[in-house]
Design brief:
Number of helices: 13
Pfam families: Phage_int_SAM_1 (PF02899), Phage_integrase (PF00589)
Helix content: 40-55%
Organism: Micromonospora thermarum
Strand order of the largest sheet: 1-2-3
CATH architecture of the largest domain: Orthogonal Bundle
Keywords: DNA integration, DNA recombination, DNA-binding
Protein name: Tyrosine-type recombinase/integrase
CATH superfamily of the largest domain: Intergrase catalytic core
Radius of gyration: 26 Å
Oligomer: single chain
Strand content: under 5%
Number of domains: 2
């Protein structure tokens, strides 16, 4: 047995967190790691034979039996999402220990975990918010130092009318816009290496052509070579993740719709709006799956379920139902 298996679990947790710090997680994420690790470790210390104080818990005490008991107690008052997150953190912790040669194997596959809940869609709020956003961004803003409405409109239109992820937008090349006028398509390098083709309707085609024309005027014909990035910054260089996020945030501010953007969604809210409107207009889960590049039908089905729930809530809010309820005889009692 490696002599580190006698080390304090708390000490090894701190070594793991130090390793994670080099990957630049947010302070909130790092604190969530620490909380999940210490909370389950404290429960494991109580489940050990004999029970131990947390600061005296050695690594070798974390047997599958002890970990199963600790996670059972951890799960009782918590949501499935919280339990799944804690399980993933502990799985990463043991993977770190295995990679360092501190333990010979990872016991977490022997510990049950709930299925990861599918995230709820977070589209822009307000029925006409996307139209307001596009209209505001299409106008040159005199307050900007170097306004480029054609480029800003192209970014938003690609997200709202093609449902592209941030990474997919950044991966686009000029040649990704393929086909003849009227039959245009986007060749998208999707998540997990899954390519897909998204049809480009004439309205989006015009926006993209106008953007490329404005780019030629700014930087010359060489700037729109087929292998060039499709989306560039105001210096003509490829847009990066931070620059794209800042651009979208600035568009929200210019349109005055910041309060209608779900927290934590930012650019992804545009993709969710695209998918939600597909569902509202009657697209099937299979069609949504193909257009958005989902790995599973369940992810696509979530948009249909949310849309159906919203429709039912809208019907329920109709004042006529309350009037009708007043005409019905009281139920029960006899």
């Amino acid at each position: 047995m490696h002599d580190k298996e006698d080390e304090s679990v708390l000490q090894l947790i701190e070594e793991f967190l130090t390793d994670r710090t080099t990957r630049k997680p947010s302070p909130h994420t790092l604190e969530a790691y620490r909380r999940d690790l210490r909370t389950v470790a404290a429960l494991a210390a109580e489940e050990a034979t004999p029970p131990l104080p947390l600061d005296a818990l050695p690594l070798h005490a974390l047997s599958p039996r002890v970990l199963r008991a600790a996670f059972a107690r951890f799960a009782a008052p918590r949501s499935a999402a919280s339990v799944h997150r804690a399980w993933s953190t502990w799985n990463s912790f043991f993977s770190f220990l295995v990679a360092d040669g501190i333990v010979g194997g990872n016991p977490m596959p022997a510990v049950g975990r709930p299925r990861a809940p599918l995230p709820r869609p977070k589209p822009l709020r307000g029925a006409d918010t996307p139209e307001q956003l596009l209209a505001a961004v299409a106008r040159a803003d005199g307050r900007q130092r170097d306004p480029w409405p054609e480029r800003d409109l192209a970014v938003l239109a690609l997200a709202l009318c093609a449902g592209l992820r941030l990474s997919e937008l950044l991966a686009l090349r000029v040649a990704s816009l393929a086909g003849r006028a009227g039959e245009r398509r986007l060749d998208v390098a999707g998540k997990g290496g899954r390519p897909r083709v998204v049809p480009v309707e004439p309205e989006l085609d015009v926006v993209l052509v106008d953007y490329l024309d404005s780019r030629r005027r700014r930087f010359g014909a060489r700037s729109v070579r087929p292998d060039s990035p499709l989306l560039v910054d105001r210096r003509g260089e490829a847009l990066r993740r931070g620059g794209l996020q800042y651009l979208v945030d600035s568009c929200y501010r210019r349109a005055g719709i910041g309060d209608r953007v779900p927290r934590g969604a930012r650019l992804h809210a545009l993709r969710h709006t695209f998918a939600t409107r597909l569902a509202e207009d009657g697209a099937s889960a299979a069609e949504i799956m193909r257009l958005l590049g989902h790995a599973s039908l369940a992810s696509s089905q979530a948009y249909i379920e949310v849309t159906a729930g919203q429709q039912r809530a809208a019907v329920r809010a109709n004042r006529t139902h309350r009037a009708l309820a007043g005409l019905l005889p009281a139920q029960g009692g006899g």
